[in-house]
Design goal:
Number of helices: 13
Bound molecules: adenosine-5'-diphosphate, magnesium ion
Oligomer: single chain
Strand order of the largest sheet: 2-1-5-4-3
Shape: elongated
Largest sheet: 5 strands, antiparallel
CATH architecture of the largest domain: 2-Layer Sandwich
CATH superfamily of the largest domain: Histidine kinase-like ATPase, C-terminal domain
């Protein structure tokens, strides 16, 4: 079959093995016998009528058989070539259509087959495109997709699923991949009653994760055996935010209820048993005022927090004189320090640059840190407040791209904070020693406010504490550059 143009773009070049297709002798003989059988019949008739001898008949028949074989050979060989061609197409091989000799209908058949192969190629390409597109679509979905069969073995997954549960999931039992009984039960139910389900579940290993899973059943299993599809969303963060909100509301209500109950109790006493007790009235009113102050401070802090949260995504950029703010706050705290016979030692580096910040919020930061130092520092001790420019940031502080920052540190001499409390210290309502800090009048929100403000300023905060010696809070703020 020389002379056929080479198809370089095709994966398998057309084979040129056509020439080797020959008609087996057996086939030729059998076909010739069948086709020449009428001749044999006629020759038999002649022998019966006495017009031919048996020997003559045998000779004549052999001649007829050979002639038949010669006549049908091209037909058979064309047929063999076509059969081979069709077989190769069916096996998806690329072959050259056979070149057929003189027999019109066979040529037509060959032409038809050629066209069939061409349209087959086009359809195949279309199918491949569709499959690839679907695969890409499934893979790029952010949701986790796991498809299982009725034995709850994984058949297919998408990239999001593999990113979380590992590669090579296909063929594994789902319960090995996601060991959660609740999920398995839900899938069994869906497989049984064909009704889709939506469940939330949690896995604890290697870390705690919450998922929302939607389980849907295919009306009929696919060729690959997929019967059920599980779509999952990681809702860990959502859950923890939900939990935090719930805790926050519970905490805030509790903190407000305590002073309120106390005020109510005293009012009842003053209206009842202590009605005419002038001395008691004086004392109770003082306590009530204290409790009302506490409620007021708490509400003020709650409002500050919510305002900071609302502005969390807008970074202050205006130039602010932190030294001025610190001096003012130190002045404000003079009296409470003197009450505990404490000294406030302020050290401000000369020519300190301005920072990028919102002055009211930064005043709040300084206020909270200094009042903590006074509250939790020993009587007769010193509180050192320093303000300087630095290029050295503590490691692991996320303030990249900043060459220089202004550092404010507030250091006290006091009980200090045991290490285990440090990670949670800036959480809302977190207190190291609840009884004691309530007694000294804290809301438990001061450091949460500080942290919120510093985060909004894209600054950083660190705590160093030695139990029995004291604590130092350091705040780092971006320097103002114009
Ligand atoms: N300078 C400090 N020395 C020791 N402990 C401190 C200091 N500052 C804060 N703490 C601890 O951190 C907790 C949280 O502080 P904060 O948020 O300001 O709340 P509080 O209203 O109780 O002062 C305090 O209850 C206290 O236990
Ligand atoms: Mg405080």
């Amino acid at each position: 079959m020389g002379g056929c143009p080479a198809h370089h773009e095709l994966p398998n070049p057309p084979s040129t093995s056509m020439a080797r297709i020959t008609v087996p002798f057996n086939t030729l003989l059998k076909s010739a016998l069948v086709v020449s059988s009428p001749a044999l019949l006629i020759l038999g008739l002649y022998v019966g009528l006495g017009k031919l001898t048996s020997t003559e008949m045998i000779y004549a028949y052999v001649v007829a058989l050979v002639a038949t074989a010669l006549v049908i050979y091209p037909f058979l060989s064309n047929l063999a070539a076509l059969t081979h061609y069709v077989k190769e197409i069916a096996l998806d091989k690329r072959v050259q259509a056979p070149e057929l000799s003189f027999i019109g209908s066979a040529m037509e058949l060959s032409e038809a087959l050629k066209r069939l192969q061409a349209s087959w190629d086009v359809k195949k390409k279309q199918m491949e495109t569709i499959i690839t597109e679907r695969e890409i679509l499934v893979d790029t979905l952010p949701d986790i997709l796991i498809m299982v069969n009725d034995e709850k073995r994984v058949v297919r997954t998408n990239r999001a699923a593999r990113a979380i549960f590992g590669q090579n999931l296909a063929g594994q039992e789902l319960k090995e991949v996601i060991p959660n009984l609740y999920l398995m039960d839900a899938i069994s139910s869906v497989i049984q009653d064909l009704k889709g389900r939506e469940i939330e579940f949690r896995i604890e290993d290697p870390v705690v994760r919450d998922f929302l899973a939607i389980i849907e059943r295919f009306p009929v299993p696919t060729a690959g055996g997929i019967s059920t599809v599980i779509t999952m969303n990681d809702i860990t963060e959502l859950k923890s935010v939900e939990q935090m909100r719930a805790d926050f509301v519970a905490n805030a209500s509790h903190e407000l209820r305590t002073p309120l109950a106390s005020i109510k109790g005293f009012v009842e006493t003053l209206l009842g048993p202590a009605k005419d007790d002038v001395a008691a009235r004086e004392e109770f009113l003082k306590i009530m005022l204290d409790q009302a102050d506490r409620m007021q401070q708490l509400i003020g802090d709650l409002l500050s927090l919510s305002k900071i949260e609302m502005n969390a995504h807008s970074v202050p950029t205006e130039p602010t004189d932190l030294a001025k703010i610190v001096r003012k706050e130190v002045e404000h705290h003079k009296r409470s320090a003197t009450d505990k016979n404490m000294r406030l030692l302020l050290q401000v580096q000369e020519n300190l640059p301005l920072v990028k910040g919102e002055s009211n919020e930064l005043a709040q930061v300084v206020h909270n840190l200094v009042s903590n130092a006074i509250k939790y520092g020993y009587a007769d001790s010193d509180v050192s407040i320093t303000l300087r420019l630095t290029t050295e940031l503590p490691q692991d502080l996320n303030m990249r791209n900043l060459s220089r920052v202004v550092a404010l540190s507030v250091k006290d001499q006091g009980d200090g904070i045991p290490k285990q409390h440090l990670p949670r210290l800036m959480e809302r309502f977190y207190r190291v020693d609840s009884a004691r800090t309530r007694q000294v009048g804290g809301t438990g929100l001061g450091l949460a406010i500080v942290k919120g403000i510093i985060t909004r300023h894209r600054g950083a905060i660190t705590v160093d504490s030695v139990v029995g010696e004291g604590t130092q809070f350091s705040v780092f703020l971006p320097m103002y550059e114009n």
